Amino acid sequence: MSSIMTKKITCPKCGAESEIKVFKTVNAATDPIYREQLLNGELLKYTCDQCGSPAQLRYPLLYNDMKNNFMVYFIPEIDRDKLTDEALEKQFGELEGITRRLVGSYNELKEKIHIFEANLDDRVIEVVKAALKDVVEKRTGEEVTGGYFSKYSVDEDRIGFTFFVGDEGEQFVQTTRLEIYEKSAAVAAAGEDDPTDRSFKIVDRNWARNVLYKYKKNKENRAGSTAQ
Ligand SMILES: [Zn+2]
């Protein structure tokens, strides 16, 4: 079951108070409707009863999908120091074989859900994304500021990402063959999780950068020792 509270909030525009639903946890297996509303943005949207002005809600929320064996803890960047919720972590702490992730933005939360629902490994996805980011920067001559997993098709043999390019954050879709995903698994393995560690891990672009560095280093060491 999802865990929901009601909370009073003050409209930033007109100052009127309204009651809103605040989700402490969203359980995708028992409440697929909330999964749907989270992904389409409905769940974290609120409209003032008085003046009708809309606002986006951002608060810590634990998303769990026991059917697909993953949990994503969404803690908005600004709240990062006040948390995490230890009671909540303990409640889910004992479960085995569950992938646990921590994200700081709503877009990352959605991305993780899409990745795990497609039965893909988000560590490998981050490695592929890092490689394709370089490709996009070469092709456009501009800096990539972010990017999200946006395509996966076995029939078309494509995996792809939507990148945000340049100052305007223009969208640029870059896809590649699934073979690249399979090959990247060896790189991602350099950042293998400790299976006894039950904490919520951040797997993002910095994670991928570190892993790529480690992988290259290991490879150099191996090459060095054979040469001697
Ligand atoms: Zn209002």
Q: How many strands, which pairing sense, and closed or not: the largest β-sheet?
A: 5 strands, mixed
Strand content: 25-35%
| Helical residue percent band | 25-40%
* Number of DSSP E strands: 10
SS class = alpha+beta
List each distinct ligand once. zinc ion
N-to-C CA distance: 60 Å
Number of helices: 6
Estimate the mean pLDDT confidence.
89
Provide the low-confidence segments as ranges.
none
Query: Strand-and-helix sequence, N→C?
Result: EEHEEEEHEHHEEEHH
Strand order of the largest sheet: 1-2-5-6-7
Q: Tell the overall outline.
A: globular
**Compute the gyration radius: what is it?**
20 Å
Number of domains: 2
Summary, kept brief:
The protein has 228 residues and is α+β, with helices and mostly antiparallel strands.
